[in-house]
Design goal:
Elements lengths: L2 H5 L10 H9 L1 H4 L15 H4 L5 H13 L7 E5 L7 E6 L10 H15 L6 E6 L4 E3 L4 H5 L3 H19 L5 E5 L2 E3 L1 H8 L2 E5 L3 E3 L13 H9 L1 H10 L3 E2 H7 L4 E3 L7 H13 L4 H14 L4 H15 L3 H12 L9
Parallel strand pairs: 2-3, 3-5, 4-6, 5-7, 6-8, 7-10
Antiparallel strand pairs: 1-2, 8-9
């Protein structure tokens, strides 16, 4: 019997305390396991959840723990908007005491959220934003990291890199709303999104070199693709932080606005941007994202072929027919995503 199951014979209502979870994460026996616990009927294998994790039992435990929490006590959760904003989903980050630091439970819950969004065809745009005032995401949880061996830390960063890749691969447009600090892994999370809005007073930077590290969750690859090689090297080599206005000038964010009294100007601007996206044909927008992302990694000729493949997938849709009909009839189109 595994250490995990000695602690708790799982049922759907099983509860694992955070102290027990920390004991699991520190256990060398857990780190040796490469799959979900055998016979755990409450935890079917889900490759995306365990991808890149050196301690899938801990990931499993964290998932069971997080599923038992009331929604408002979760560190990461989804809120689907309604009414005129139907089609917009918010990923709300609320790890209050740790400033949304990227800890094990936070990452596990973010994997769950991304997995849910990927399968939801009704979501047309996603806004990632913080419910912790003054911070988007402070980066790595250094207290947790200090308890890891070198091997455990390497595997943990691999899992974090996999999470950012999963966010980047979401089929619908994603927007990071930066209203405070987005440092290290926090900026890497924002870079994994398609678009970024920021308050002018926000602070962001890949500060890993100031800690004797380098960006390890995609930052060294996504930042140059966003702001250009020279600017990216300068920001990474120096560990410099920039504010929202500077980030806009560099092309790091799409929009920067003055902060308001509520401290959520970046979020409000992200909602405004999402509202410009959701009236458009959802299949067309998703295919446009795929064409852009896949085309950016290849030569122009191959990119043209990718564009043609994506275009061909839009032609037979009802949305395309609706778009043409609405144009002819001089009315707003009513897209259904079909």
């Amino acid at each position: 019997m595994s250490l995990l199951h000695k602690l708790a014979p799982w049922s759907r209502k099983a509860v694992l305390t955070l102290s027990a979870l920390r004991q699991l994460s520190a256990s060398s026996s857990v780190a040796k396991v490469r799959g979900p616990p055998a016979g755990c009927s409450a935890c079917p294998t889900r490759r995306r959840i365990f991808l890149g994790s050196p301690d899938p039992l801990v990931a499993c435990a964290a998932r069971h723990y997080s599923e038992d929490l009331p929604p408002l006590q979760r560190e990461v959760r989804i809120k689907k908007l309604e009414g005129d904003d139907s089609g917009i989903a918010e990923v709300r980050m609320s790890r209050q005491r740790a400033r949304n630091a990227l800890g094990k439970v936070f990452i596990t819950q973010m994997f769950e959220v991304v997995d849910t969004l990927r399968q939801d065809s009704q979501v047309r745009a996603v806004v990632f934003h913080s419910e912790v005032r003054g911070v988007f995401c402070a980066g790595a949880d250094l207290k947790e990291r200090a308890q890891m061996s070198n091997t455990e830390a390497e595997h943990f960063v691999h899992r974090l890199r996999s999470l950012m890749s999963e966010i980047a691969a979401l089929p619908m447009p994603t927007i990071a709303a930066i209203d405070g600090f987005a440092l290290g892994g926090g900026l890497e999370l924002a870079l994994a999104c398609d678009l970024r809005t920021a308050a002018a007073s926000a602070k962001m930077g890949l500060i890993e070199t100031t800690r004797g590290l380098l960006p390890g969750a995609g930052g060294s690859q996504r930042l140059p693709r966003t702001v250009g090689m020279g600017v990216a090297k300068e920001l990474i080599f120096t560990g410099r932080q920039v504010d929202g206005e500077q980030a806009l000038a560099l092309g790091l964010v799409n929009r920067a606005v003055p902060q308001n009294q509520a401290g959520d100007a970046g979020y409000r601007e992200a909602l405004s941007l999402a509202r410009e996206i959701i009236p458009q044909g959802p299949v067309a927008v998703r295919m446009a994202k795929e064409a852009i992302n896949r085309g950016a990694e290849v030569d122009v000729a191959t990119g043209m072929a990718i564009e043609g493949m994506c275009y061909a997938r839009v032609i037979p849709t009802r949305d395309r027919q609706e778009g043409m009909a609405a144009f002819i009839q001089k009315r707003a189109p009513r897209y259904t995503g079909e």
